[in-house]
Amino acid sequence: MATSPDREGATVQLTLSEAELDDILYMREEKKLARDAYLTLHEQWGTPVFANISWAEQRHMDRMLGLVEHYGLVDPVTETASAYSSMRSCSHCTMHWWRVAGAASWTCSLWTH
């Protein structure tokens, strides 16, 4: 449970379900995965757009860290690239992270080639 000001500035109690708290932790790590992937792509090809996207993902990570701290959760993120402790698998997607020529790989069964 945490407190937060409402629109009029009064303090209100906020209670999130376990699923919502888990979602906050998941989103924090998902944003790290995205940041790491775009950093890797930038390192491999030097394309500025990948650096820009990784910067945006870092901003998203920072926002999610604010929620982690606000709700008194333990931050699952470490600065070790490719280390993820609570990533869930999507019912359609399998994320694979490995260094093959310095690139990340993401496969999704919904995408057919």
The biggest beta sheet, please?
A: 2 strands, antiparallel
Mean pLDDT, nearest integer?
A: 76
The CA-CA distance between the termini, in Å, is 46 Å
CATH superfamily grouping: Ferritin, core subunit, four-helix bundle
CATH class: Mainly Alpha
Q: Pick out the low-confidence regions.
A: 89-104, 108-113
Q: Which outline best applies?
A: elongated
Class computed from helices, strands and strand pairing: alpha+beta
Total individual domains: 1
CATH architectural arrangement: Up-down Bundle
Biggest β-sheet: strands ordered side by side in the sheet: 1-2
The number of helical elements comes to: 2
- Series of H and E elements: EEHHEE
Give the DSSP E fraction (strand runs of 2 or more residues). Answer: 15-25%
What is the radius of gyration computed over CA atoms, rounded to a whole number of angstroms? 17 Å
CATH topology: Ferritin
